[in-house]
Amino acid sequence: MATVLDRIIAATREEVARRQAATPLSAIDATARLQPPPRGFAAALTRKAADGHALIAEIKKASPSKGLIREDFDPPAHARAYEAGGAACLSVLTDKPFFQGDEAYLVAAREACSLPAIRKDFMVDPWQVAEARAIGADAILIIVAALDDGAMAEIEAAAIDHAMDVLVEVHDDAELDRALRLHSRLIGVNNRDLRDFTVDLGRTEALAQRMPEGTEIVAESGLSTKADLDRLAQAGIHRFLVGETLMRQADVAEATRRLLIGA
Ligand SMILES: O=C(O)c1ccccc1NCC(=O)[C@H](O)[C@H](O)COP(=O)(O)O
């Protein structure tokens, strides 16, 4: 039976084909190369991780697992709140059918603050990497479960060509083995199983044991308290990606501060 990820990827392939027909790679690539240089996503995480928890704070309106998360959704306001609360970077969902995202949200969020931003979407083709840079994104996500080795390498090469950072997402040992064949050493462990949406923070702890020296591990999904971050820090993990918990708070800046440094 097709999983949610299978359905997302199938829909994304159709959408990308439509967009490519309207705007060929050469045109989107030319727009990408007119952008100011990326803000340095991985470097911003490393700076914050040097003396505390480094947070990628996610701007997420809805999700397949939770439906609508935030009604008064306001990407520029959330971006400013995340920066004020001490986040290192932004993650902005741009997928429309499954997350109610939009490219415009990334543009608006990034313009409202000085944080680097990852385009959080389902990359299936290097064309999307050029599009991500053309709208200002500083980094892209590669989900290992969604791609074969050849496609991953092509997408990563496109990101390197645009001087963008790549967060490579894995969920199990086999995916980690494949991720380690890429160049990027920014590796996210998704604690959420995308087949049944169960969350287990032990995933990041277990896979962290197998990461080579020099890997920058990001714990992703299902994190909700400073105690969660402190628990993972015990296992040497200092980079975190958090969405839903923060997006549900009335005072996003204060909630971000509490998550990072406590009451
Ligand atoms: O969040 C989902 O339901 C989801 C479903 C299918 C594919 C991806 C999904 N989430 C993407 C993410 O990586 C999360 O938004 C991110 O890690 C933040 O997670 P959370 O803090 O639990 O909102």
UniProtKB/TrEMBL annotation:
Taxonomic path: Bacteria, Pseudomonadati, Pseudomonadota, Alphaproteobacteria, Sphingomonadales
| Lyase in keyword set | yes
Xref: Pfam families: IGPS (PF00218)
The Enzyme Commission number assigned here is 4.1.1.48
Where is each Indole-3-glycerol phosphate synthase domain found? 5-259
* Pathway of action: Amino-acid biosynthesis; L-tryptophan biosynthesis; L-tryptophan from chorismate: step 4/5
Q: PANTHER family this protein is in?
A: INDOLE-3-GLYCEROL-PHOSPHATE SYNTHASE, TRYPTOPHAN BIOSYNTHESIS PROTEIN
What terms describe the molecular function in GO for this protein?
Answer: indole-3-glycerol-phosphate synthase activity
Which branch of life, at top level? Bacteria
| Assigned keywords, A-Z | Amino-acid biosynthesis, Aromatic amino acid biosynthesis, Decarboxylase, Lyase, Tryptophan biosynthesis
Belongs to which family? Belongs to the TrpC family.
Query: In which organism is this protein found?
Result: Sphingomonas abietis
- Please state what the protein is called: Indole-3-glycerol phosphate synthase
The answer to whether UniProt assigns keyword Lyase to this entry is yes
Tell me what reaction this enzyme catalyses.
1-(2-carboxyphenylamino)-1-deoxy-D-ribulose 5-phosphate + H(+) = (1S,2R)-1-C-(indol-3-yl)glycerol 3-phosphate + CO2 + H2O
